[in-house]
Structures are given as structure tokens and as C-alpha cells.
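We emphasize that the prediction below concerns an isolated chain of 249 residues; any contacts that depend on oligomerization or on bound cofactors are therefore not represented. The input was used exactly as deposited, without trimming of termini.
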Amino acid sequence: MVAIRLNKYLSEQGVCSRREADRLIEAGEVTIDGRRAVVGEKVTGEELIFCSGKLVGGETGPRKIKAVLLAVNKPRGVVCTTSDKDRAPNVVELVGYPERIYPIGRLDKDSEGLLLMTNQGELANQIIHAGNLHEKEYLVTVDSLINEAFLKKMREGVELKELGEITRPCRVDWEGKRTFRIVLTQGMNRQIRRMCETLDYHVVALKRIRIMNIHLGKLNPGDYRNVTWEEWKELERRLQEGNDDGSDN
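Result of the prediction step, given as a C-alpha cell string:
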């Protein structure tokens, strides 16, 4: 069999994304034929591979897994990481799906709304990659009355000195006295909150309502649904063609 990088193998087996796989390997959570794995090595899938104490694939070779893609409404107070550093409930436990799945990207603890979860590592990598300009849409409420000057600055790009970056121009629309809608094509850490704080506003509520062509809709907090076949096919089309023009808005 053709050997592939271990992180890619773990991703294809639905364990986690490649980035998370490298983290687990570095942490000593992955073994190959009884020895500790190292980042960058290659496997064929015929080895006995364990990740976090669980067998990956099967003793006679890689197993076939059913592709899963869920749309989840993550409530506030729930985290997307399973790290012990944060004792808050995590989204994997919240969903309680019978197969191993993991979130595609993150939505911070104080935010709510749409989160995609899957067992498809390559799909996760494609969606996460910020260079692909994939749209994510949010409804944001701040602590002060907003005005056109604020919206104009948000649209044109805000300098985040602590990150040494200027945000990409984006679409921002007025929704209420203290609420606006924003569509981002990048994913800096706590980006919307940092943008608002730079302009002397503070976010009091933040909800993600769309990722590319997949909408939160009327999904209740804590609930999830399977992404439909039509949604999945359209998502794949956009990923393959790099065409995420937001025409579904």
C-alpha cells in the first residue's frame, strides 16, 4: 500500500483534522505498533495505530466510515475544545453523537450559533482554510448605539494592533439600534469582538447564522441536524470551485 503522512491518515479515518492530529502526536497521544508516533512520519494503514487509547481503523487495515456532517446550534457557555484547561461543557459532549465527530473550526465560549461538526478531516481542512475566502455570517449586539461611521469603519477594515493585522473589507448591515449583521471571509481569533473594542464598542451577544451555504435557521440552542444532501453537494461545489459569492442571502 502507498504510505501517507500520519496526520492525513488520522484525518481520513475521521479522528480529527490534520492540525489537531499533529497536536495529538506531539502530545504523545498516538502510537504505532506500540511505540510513540512522531510528527511527519508515514503509515500505510496496516499498522496497529492507537489515538488517545482508541484503535484507529482495524487490525486488518483501514475501516470505511460513514460520512457525517452536522449543523449544530452551539449555546453560550459551551466550548469547542475538549481540553481540560476549561471545565465548561464541550460541544462534543453536548451533542452526544454515537460516532466520533469534531467541530470544524471554533466558536468561542461566549458566542452562540451555527457550528459544523464532522468525521471528515479533509472537508474540515477545506472549510477552515481562511485563504479560500469562505463566508461566515453573524448577528452582533453591542453595548452602545451604533451609527453609520461605526459601520463604515467596520466595512473598510479595522487595524488590530495586538495581532499586527488589518481586517479584510467586509459586508456590514444595520439591523437595529445596537445590532448589526456582518459577513467575514477570515477567521482571526475573536475577530468581531476585537474589531468592536478597537472602535470603543463591546459585544454583548454574538450569534453565527451562516457558514457558506449552510444556515442556522430555526434550530434551537443545543440541537443539531444532519446537513441535507442538497446542502452538502452545494458546499462541495463551492469548495471545489472556490465560488462562495453569498448569493443565497
